[in-house]
Design goal:
The protein is built from 9 helices and 11 strands. The protein is α/β, with parallel strands linked by helices. The protein binds zinc ion.
Length: 439
């Protein structure tokens, strides 16, 4: 098997770790990812072709890792020596990375932003290898240096969500010190279809913020003796409990009466509960007397109308199809953590929730950090060759944003979207959010 290939049980070889197996005398340690549940587990080179997933296919337990190995708890020092040592051993599709795109602005050009950070998030369960792979957290970043756009010179690959968040905080610190206006974007929905806040029994004028709170720090269910799960969205070993969090949220929607599954759905068989199952509950999903949750948000519908295929935010996991529900459950707490970080909270705003729809999103002051949701499908025809797809997508999104901004076309993207009535504007502004660039 070679990295990127799957065995007959859908277990993908991520990397051949340059370490001996502890269970087979002559075997080496290999790191696999389950294409069904996205869990990462270690096996050995002798039985990799036969391995089933230990988490969703009743496979044997993962291969034990030697002490002090940068497998589960990443340590930067151990990681970098391993990287150097292993370079020659692993075949990569391309070692020569293409130069980042050249983008320029006119001398006196007044752009909305001074720096752009784009993140492709990942809900993978378990730490990834040292060599870059798809479906990991990927970041691209660039900032104006006079008339030219400077790019972050390293590959934006991260083995864990925690390492990615820490990197973003460090980069934001740097930009803020330089008094820059930063646009920071992740590629998942920042809201759910209208009605979800009420269905969850949450209060407040602006449901987006109470939904972000409930996902990030789930609260006790009334009358239930069991404590709520803690959202492990960015643990050191990159394990997460998104299915548990999903089941809790569904339970909250369906408190009292007969247990009913939904609206979140999609998980391995053994993670099913009376409230959270593999199958879709069907949409619209009835809530309360006369109410229902739609399949898509207004902004998703806008992309659908244009022939795109945005993903449904209720769908947490399903076979080999790309899904986004798990990214939302692990990603909203990450954006919230960055948004509310003590160093940045006073200069940070989430668009459009906190800024409103406005052609001057960064008008509040300098420096500032504006958070916005993106969907990289809008640049799928502009991807550079020779990069891992996620990497190409975040780079293309940075290029898209900087180019629009250089041409003074960017502000309008943040204004009230064309063709929305007042009711829709209000829904998007307070609960559903909007995808930057969806029109
Ligand atoms: Zn699995």
């Amino acid at each position: 098997m070679r990295p990127g290939e799957c065995n007959k049980h859908g277990q993908e070889l991520l990397e051949k770790v340059d370490l001996p197996s502890r269970s087979h005398p002559y075997a080496r340690l290999w790191r696999m990812r389950c294409t069904t549940c996205d869990s990462v587990h270690e096996c050995n080179s002798c039985d990799a072709h036969l391995r089933r997933c230990p988490f969703c296919q009743h496979g044997q337990p993962p291969e034990p890792l030697p002490e002090g190995i940068p497998g589960l708890v990443p340590g930067t020092q151990a990681q970098s020596t391993t990287r150097v040592r292993r370079r020659a051993a692993v075949q990569r599709p391309s070692t020569e990375l293409p130069e980042p795109p050249v983008v320029r602005r006119g001398d006196s050009q007044a752009t909305c932003f001074d720096a752009y950070i784009m993140v492709d998030w990942s809900a993978t369960n378990g730490a990834l290898g040292t060599d870059p792979v798809p479906n990991a957290p990927w970041v691209a970043e660039a900032w104006w240096n006079g008339c030219q756009l400077d790019w972050w010179p390293q590959r934006g690959y991260f083995r864990t969500r925690r390492l990615c968040i820490n990197h973003l905080l460090e980069r934001l610190r740097n930009h803020v010190k330089e008094k820059r206006r930063v646009l920071s974007c992740f590629d998942f929905a920042y809201g759910y279809p209208t009605g979800y806040g009420r269905a969850l029994g949450l209060g407040g004028q602006a449901f987006w913020t109470s939904i972000w709170g409930e996902i990030s720090v789930p609260t006790a269910l009334q009358g239930m003796p069991v404590p709520p799960p803690q959202n492990e969205y960015a643990s050191a070993n990159n394990r997460n409990n998104r299915f548990e969090v999903a089941s809790h949220l569904n339970h909250r929607v369906n408190l009292g009466g007969q247990p009913r599954a939904g609206p979140l759905y999609g998980c391995p068989a053994q993670n099913q509960t009376p409230f959270f199952t593999q199958a879709s509950p069907g949409f619209p999903y009835a809530i309360g007397p006369g109410g229902a949750l739609g399949h898509f948000r207004v902004t998703d519908q806008r992309l659908l109308d244009r022939g795109h295929h945005p993903l449904c935010c209720w769908w947490v996991l399903g076979g080999r199809a790309p899904v986004v529900g798990g990214q939302i459950l692990t990603g909203i707490p990450a954006v919230k953590e960055i948004r509310n970080h003590p160093e940045f909270s006073k200069i940070s705003k989430v668009w459009p929730f906190e800024t409103g729809f406005t052609p001057s999103p960064s008008a509040g002051g300098t420096p500032c950090i504006i958070h916005a949701e993106i969907w990289p499908g809008i640049v799928n025809d502009q991807l550079q060759d020779g990069l891992i797809r996620d990497e190409a997508q975040v780079r293309a999104m940075v290029k898209w944003a900087a180019s629009q901004d250089a041409e003074s076309n960017f502000g309008v993207r943040f204004a009230v979207p064309e063709g929305l009535d007042d009711g829709q504007v209000s829904r998007c502004r307070h609960e559903e959010g909007w995808i930057l660039g969806s029109g």
